[in-house]
Amino acid sequence: MKGRNITNARRHVDYLLSVRDELIRAENAVDKIKKSDEWKQCQNYFNVLHHRGAIPELPCKRNGYAIPEIISGGKESFAVVEVSKLRKCLTAKQFKEIFGEEKTE
Questions:
Q1: Which residues have CB under 8 Å from 65's CB, separation 6+?
Q2: ∠ CA 9-29-21 to the nearest 5 degrees?
Q3: Integer Cα distance of 22 and 28 in angstroms
Q4: What is the pLDDT of residues 52-101, one digit of tens each?
Q5: Is residue 46 a contact partner of residue 59, using CB atoms and an 8 Å limit?
Q6: Nearest-CA neighbor of 60 among 72, 78, 75, 76?
Q7: Using CA atoms, how far apart are residues 75 and 47, in angstroms rounded to an integer?
Q8: CA 2/CA 101 separation, integer angstroms
Q9: What is the pTM of this model?
């Protein structure tokens, strides 16, 4: 029984050591984003929209940080904004950088 506990402990320690660097990098990246003023302003903006009933849920990990599509002059709907919907708003250069092809419109 004692030998089994040592084997389990070694397996857990080995796993933690194998993912340690990647975990530290990921946590540092998340901390950098979530401690930024831009993130705080973004969260406040969506909190206000949610509180006013303009969007049904906040962008979060659970819903893939879905972004509410804001329609000026109308009620906001909650949907992921697709880049293809932005084609008419892009310059030919921006279009080519994103899609890798010439703008045909």
A1: 59
A2: 30
A3: 10
A4: 887 888 888 888 888 766 544 445 444 555 656 666 667 778 777 777 76
A5: yes
A6: 78
A7: 16
A8: 64
A9: 0.52
Phi/psi of residue 13, nearest 5 degrees: -65, -45
Residue 43 to residue 26: CA distance in whole angstroms? 21
Phi-psi region of 97 (alpha: psi -120 to 50; beta: other; left: phi over 0): alpha
Residue in the block written with tokens 């506990």: 5
Strand partners, 77: 69
Judge contact between 57 and 63, C-beta under 8 A: yes
* 95: DSSP letter: H
Burial of residue 49 (number of CB atoms within 10 Å: 0-12, 13-18, 19+): middle
Residues β-bridged to residue 68: 78
Instruction: Give dist(CA 102, CA 96) in Å, integer.
Output: 5
